[in-house]
Amino acid sequence: MFTTINRKPEIDYDDTTGVVLEDIKGDVELRDVSFSYPSRPEQLIFDGFSMHVSSGTTMAIVGESGSGKTTVINLVERFYDPQAGEVLIDGMNIKSFKLEWMRGKIGLVNQEPVLFMTSIKENIAYGKEDATLEEIKKAAELANAARFIENLPNGYDTAVGQRGAQLSGGQKQRIAVARAILKNPKILLLDEATSALDLESERVVQEALSNIMVGRTTIVVAHRLSTVRNAHCISVVSGGKIVEQG
């Protein structure tokens, strides 16, 4: 137990060193990246993988399960570091940035949103600690969530229950979108953000995502055609390489 407590992680969120810029454009590049997960070091996910997403554009990543789509998102968020090659934002290696600051510029919406056992307001506010109620309401509006929240008996003070058990899948996902958008990120990462939803919920959430993707660098991992149809560029990943792009 003490070994675990005393372990110094290689990627340390509390590390206060590192570069802090005034702002970023949001240009994202993976250059000659080789990567395997620590739990399966012998299985290379990427071997010389390269991808470039220009600032303000949307890149969709499609491909079969296990091809490395979500790995792109894990590397851009710096949940892992590649064994070789570089992940760059605005031409700078992300290892040189202060981690907390860098993640503050990135919004992430996962397939399974994590909601905490507290109010809707506080769940959205996790995106930005000093957010005002006005900002929270604006984020909820952009996420197509304001109407259903205001119709709840306690509005923004409604408790969501354990893991958001009081809400439907579409409602949970819209709260996750509101949380991501609250910090006004320059880079938006969407990992199968609508794949667990029924068609009607997907339409509402997709509409919300389309509203917030404008002018941001967006990387979308998806299986559904409806999610990737309006992307500026679609990359097909297979066996850890981009096999087609257009």
UniProtKB/TrEMBL annotation:
CDD domains: ABC_MTABC3_MDL1_MDL2
Domain annotation ABC transporter: ranges: 28-246
Protein's membrane topology: Multi-pass membrane protein
Sorted UniProt keywords: ATP-binding, Membrane, Nucleotide-binding, Transmembrane, Transmembrane helix
SUPFAM superfamilies according to UniProt: P-loop containing nucleoside triphosphate hydrolases
GO CC aspect terms: plasma membrane
GO molecular function ontology, one term from the record: ATP binding
Xref: InterPro entries: AAA+_ATPase (IPR003593), ABC1_TM_sf (IPR036640), ABC_transporter-like_ATP-bd (IPR003439), ABC_transporter-like_CS (IPR017871), P-loop_NTPase (IPR027417), Type_1_exporter (IPR039421)
Gene3D superfamilies reported in the protein's UniProt record: ABC transporter type 1, transmembrane domain, P-loop containing nucleotide triphosphate hydrolases
The organism's place on the tree of life at top rank: Eukaryota
Cell location: Membrane
Protein name: ABC transporter domain-containing protein
Organism this protein belongs to: Aegilops tauschii subsp. strangulata
Organism placement in taxonomy: Eukaryota, Viridiplantae, Streptophyta, Embryophyta, Tracheophyta
